[in-house]
Write a structure and sequence with these properties.
The chain contains ten helices and nine strands. The protein is of the alpha/beta class. It has one domain: Vaccinia Virus protein VP39 (Rossmann fold, 3-Layer(aba) Sandwich). A seven-stranded mixed sheet has the order 3-2-1-4-5-9-6, with helices on both faces. Helix 5 links the parallel strand 4 and strand 5. It starts with a helix and ends with a strand. It comes from Streptomyces phaeolivaceus. Keywords: Methyltransferase, Transferase. GO terms for molecular function: methyltransferase activity. This is SAM-dependent methyltransferase.
């Protein structure tokens, strides 16, 4: 669903052969695959936690050279751990682009730790390297935010983390400031979420991990029921589900 975001950033920063990219929170590696297909040498870092290992396994599969064509460069790497772990692995030198594409700004606490993660990646990058952060756009421009709000009401009300909150205008700038980065441009990209039917939409949204807290607090059946009801207004006559959204990205620079 975030392919338009990745494409917009890759075009703006002119990712091509010679780019050395470090992707933080790389997940299933789709953004890395797209950068690699433009000729970039890519390294992805993810936590390696049990809930993320299936994603990093998919990233490794996607980044096999035979999977992404002749333009992509060999040597794509997926590292489970921290940016420091990536530094200990062989590389071609300092990175000249860092991305953190996992969107923040929709759930309380979803930016916690990101500033520290970015700060730990800074020593691996050249001076003045662009660092890309991504976030949800204004709630009135993000149809999916209403679905997240309804679903996350099931999460533990005594815990603030994991509960829905409206995205704020300076979410990304605040994270960049905590990491010691200097903002240097931003943009907005339309990223509609489209699904073949409601069941497909439920599976897709659950796969994001944004409903994990609700499942722990209640049960899978209850979350599925609430999510299905919340998706009803976005169902078209042909049964498809369509939710227009706008996402925002910030480009900051390392000191």
């Amino acid at each position: 669903m975030l392919v338009p975001l990745y494409e917009a950033v890759h075009r703006r920063l002119d990712i091509s052969t010679g780019t050395r990219l470090l992707g933080l929170g790389c997940g299933s590696g789709l953004a890395l695959l797209m950068a690699a297909s433009r000729g970039a040498a890519v390294t992805g870092v993810d936590t390696g936690s049990p809930g993320r290992r299936a994603l990093t396994a998919l990233a490794r599969e996607r980044l096999q050279p035979e999977a992404w064509g002749r333009r992509a460069r060999a040597g794509a790497r997926i590292v489970e751990g921290t940016p420091e772990d990536a530094a200990r692995a062989p590389s071609e030198g300092l990175y000249d682009l860092v991305t953190a594409f996992e969107p923040i700004g929709c759930l309380a606490g979803d930016s916690e730790g990101l500033g520290d993660l970015l700060a730990s990646a800074t020593p691996l990058a050249e001076r003045g390297t662009p660092v890309v952060l991504a976030g949800w756009g204004p709630p009135e421009r993000c149809t999916t935010s209403t679905v997240l709000r309804v679903a996350t009401k099931l999460a533990d009300p005594l815990r603030s983390a994991g509960s829905w909150r409206p995205a704020l205008r300076d979410d990304l700038e605040e994270v960049a400031q905590r990491a010691g980065l200097k903002p240097d441009g931003s943009g907005r990209v339309a990223c509609p979420f489209g699904y073949a039917n409601v069941d497909n939409a439920v599976r897709g949204l659950l796969s994001t991990g944004l409903f994990d807290a609700a499942i722990r607090a209640t049960d899978q059946a209850q979350v599925d029921k609430e999510l299905t009801e919340a998706l009803h207004p976005h169902r078209r006559r042909d049964g498809t589900v369509w939710m227009p959204n706008v996402f925002r990205y910030l480009i900051a620079r390392t000191p």
